[in-house]
Fold each of these.
Amino acid sequence: MMSVRRPRHNPFSPDLPVPPALFAGRKKALATIEAGIDSLLSGRPKHLLIVSEPWLGKSSLAFRAKRMAHNLGAGAPLQMGRFAMCKPVFCSMGACSSLPQVCTTIMNSVLRGVGAPIGSSISRLLKRVKGLRMGPLGIDFESARQAGASVVSEFPHLLEDILTGVGGCVEERSSVLLILDEVQNIAAIQGLASHIKTTLEYLSERSHTNLALVITANPADLVTLSRQVDSFAGMFSTISIGRITDAEVQELLTETACRGRPSRAFTDDAIAYMVELAAGYPGFVQQIGHAAFDLASGPLIDLRAVKKALVGGDRMKGAVDSIADKHFRHLLDLEPIYSRILDAIDLAETPLTSADIRSRLPEIRNLGPYIKKLLNRNAITRLGTRSRPEYAIAAPIVSLWLHLQRTLPQSQLPDRCRPASAALPRM
């Protein structure tokens, strides 16, 4: 009898959020989320803000929070004043470009997430809002001209009505964990921060305790929102996430590789090498792991497979080349001197002034044009006062680029990523 060959499955996900079942590490952040969900189930909602630079796992943590809400709610004992379950609603805001779109996107996600019937009751609910209708795919605009201030002003009331209709009696009462992801596309919309604040305050004043909000944001998003409303961050418990630890890198590799088809495992020397190389960036761990899993010929992924995964081959792009295409394009055509300036800033414990940089690189006669170009490329950011500016690396991904240049042998770096030595241009 012929055996059926099972399809191969590479469990690493370098370009997508990590599936909740494969989430590793972040124990402190997960504990805070679990406490927040338990507080919501107890009728004392706490809103959470997950903050990190890009490529450090905000969306993956948000997906894990969704799974936690489902599991914790399902197993929660029903007590006086406690909700019977928690219904997580994951809402990607990446396609929104206006406040009315933000409102309808959230309402549609909540309606689907709580299992509300899309029928005559919702249609009646929308009749009082000029410009909205019930379409085949959910709430939609009747016309662009009618989608105005009424949609935004009525949003808290509509959300209240939807939340009030969740569940029918004490035994079936539900709470909702609303997760807003990819807010970098909407953070600059004028009035967004005050709109969120007004909605949460309205629900609180009306004693609706069955909704808690989770927002993922880059630090720059948070700055933008806080400029709109000074007290915006104060409404949330903030979870700041950075690079993962060496132990978390090992956990990620071990737990993920064994879930593939066929199941595989990394050798100790391969793990040690990846721990050093990844420098705590989970996205890069996923990128190397994905390539190494495909290149391994047997149940073990050894050091040779990992090193080959970095540079790739005729039929596979290497991990370094892949992340260069995704994240380093704005850095690849810079002359070697720029890498040296960035290196000096990156290795410093605190932001550097121009004088600090010149003291480290005295051979540079005119630093100004270099600093200006690095600012324009978003490789560094300006801090401090206007009269005494200081400079720091703009994002962790730039630090990773520099780390790879320092760590990898030149032969393992694609030509366009090599900081080849060259004489300094005179300026």
Note: The two ends are 77 Å apart (CA to CA).
Amino acid sequence: MMNRYKSRRPRPRARSKYCIVTNRNAGNFSAEAMRKLTNALKDTGFDYQVIDSDNIKEVIFQIKRCLPRSPAAIIACGGDGTVNLIGRHLIRRTCPLGIYPLGRINNIFRSLYGDVDLSRAVDHILSNSNRQIDQGLAFGKFFLGSVGIGLLPQMIERLENRRSPRFGIGWSRLTALSAASVEARRLSIKVDSFAFDITPTILNVNLLTYSSGLPLTPASLDNDGKCEIVFDIGGGQAVLSKYIRQIHKRKYVYSDDIRMYRGSRVAIEPVDGLKVYIDGDITEASGGQLKIQIFPRRIRVLYRNGR
């Protein structure tokens, strides 16, 4: 009996397996970019599974099937919407999220890692290291980057299928056109225990620095359980154009005209019928109040030297 057990060979150790979720509709998706990622995984000795479908329900079903198998990570190959879709299924899980930025703007990647660079993204994905970041809920919907009403949804719609402006003057023009389409509305806002009324053209709640390709909140920390709330007190287009131009140049200092507060709970009302930007997607508010809550360190992201 003992000889029989001695003759057994040890099982080969299973190789780490990544789950790759692709979005072929992402603005900068390409077969060449995907080959760069999959070749890097092969060269490093990693196995991978690809989830490639235009049907969101099918993608979600496949992600849920993948998670019980304890993948090394789930990699979002797309823009902010793809990152959001995967991130909402990784709350409080040990499975980390990898980001391979193939969207047009990639606000979440820019906020976490800097300028969009696929080689840098691969380095983080292969690092086998991660860090925990905050997540938020708005209308009960998951978000990692930012939520906006007023100016930002209008800007995103005008930028659809177009490149972001390269220079400050282009951002100023875009801001003026977008601000003219904003429905000015008297809003009551509460940040933690502090409440006040405003009639803003821009109102953004940021967990991460970038929104719509702009570094709106350079002071944002991704793991402190707080968000930054940016709003104007009713200034005109000229003020906002100058503000966005200076934000683009990273020169703006928040003051009386456009302010920034910090908190972990935000309530805004009435928002019925307003367009709301959430991590790259725009929806229409159906309830009277927009409640936002921040939860600290809920998501693990692959990050070189993350610990």
Note: Residues 207 and 227 are 5 Å apart (CA to CA).
Amino acid sequence: MNEDLLKAIHQELVAIRQLLADGKAAPAARSTPAPRASAPTTSAFTSSGGDAPIPQPTEIIANPGDVQVHFGKNNGVALSKLGERSLSWYAQEQAPRLDSTGNPYPARPQETTLRNAARTLWHQNRGTLGAAGETAKLPSEAFAEPAAAHPSDEEALPF
């Protein structure tokens, strides 16, 4: 039984390899995803080539292009000298570094400044800079009515 299964898997792999070598793809495997609607004010390049939102900065930096990267291959390079792809990477929220217990280290002030400067410069370049801490609203949220006030727990008690 296992031998038959292995032969079937082998035949399938040979067929796939042949299709790839011929430059053809199986119709079901080559489906194109529907294009995503993306607001131009929040798009950025990612390493996978897709679009990712660039959040508004939590603090607007006065001269964001003068802020220098403090690590990696761009150490000492001002944000204004970076390309669009690199700038968008520094503007993205990065995965936190974890300590030995699995808890994230708090962000250092220089990391927060770099991220806010990159976000400020990104949105300044596109004319989409909002107030500090402002988040972009989805079109469905733009006309939403404010949430009704909820009574406090004490007011909800029947006695």
Note: The longest helix spans residues 2-22.
